[in-house]
Specification:
By secondary structure, the protein is mainly α. 74% of the residues lie in helices and 0% in strands. It has one domain.
């Protein structure tokens, strides 16, 4: 039990630990995931105006935000506003991808696709979990940082479902996807705030 508590503590406070090699590995892995994400969206990007590209690659953006925030933390140049922004994006799109894959499981986990999307499901679960140590580094969430994060996430929602920049997914019951995507904007921000305000108070001592 002690070792489990110690492992949880080391994960939550990853950026305060001595596991620098793990942090570097996660930075490189997320950058690689970002590049693969851009490749995954290649057909949609080629069929869209370049001005919409940053609004199409939501999940690759989130993994890129992790790498940037982690680099800033490692260099001692952490910005709480950006950490909050990054963690909220990671939480939202990690959850969004998993929920969407499960909601359309007959399509994404069909025999010819299940291996690819099982891997994508796992990587987005990891993206979600990575939001926790980033959120744990936040000392103060400012009104400015909250407003910027909310504006970005809502603008992404508007772009995805009004301007039709959402990822290529089955179109059936799209109104349900819109509803939980919009809800996740607020859930993710509240979740990161909760982690920021509560995680340091969890007693993991033996």
């Amino acid at each position: 039990m002690y070792e489990l508590k110690k492992s949880v503590r080391n994960f939550v406070f990853l950026f305060q630990s001595s596991y620098r090699n793990l942090i570097y590995f996660l930075i490189i892995s997320n950058l690689a995931g970002t590049l693969y994400g851009f490749y995954y969206y290649k057909y949609q990007l080629m069929n869209s105006s370049i001005i919409f590209w940053p609004l199409i690659t939501d999940c690759p953006n989130a993994s890129l935000f992790f790498s940037v925030s982690a680099i800033l933390i490692v260099l001692g140049k952490k910005k709480d506003g950006f950490s909050y922004f990054a963690a909220s994006n990671m939480f939202k799109y990690g959850v969004w991808a998993m929920v969407t894959l499960l909601y359309h499981s007959d399509y994404f986990f069909s025999p010819e696709r299940w291996l690819l999307y099982s891997g994508i499901f796992v990587t987005h679960f990891i993206l979600l979990m990575e939001s926790i140590p980033v959120a744990a580094t936040i000392e103060k969430i400012s009104l400015k940082g909250s407003f910027f994060t909310l504006s970005w996430l809502l603008f992404n929602d508007f772009s995805d479902y009004i301007l039709d920049t959402h990822p290529y997914i089955p179109e059936r019951n799209l109104d349900i996807v819109v509803a939980y995507t919009f809800s996740l904007t607020f859930v993710s921000m509240l979740a990161v705030y909760f982690i920021h305000s509560r995680i340091r108070k969890i007693n993991l001592s033996p």
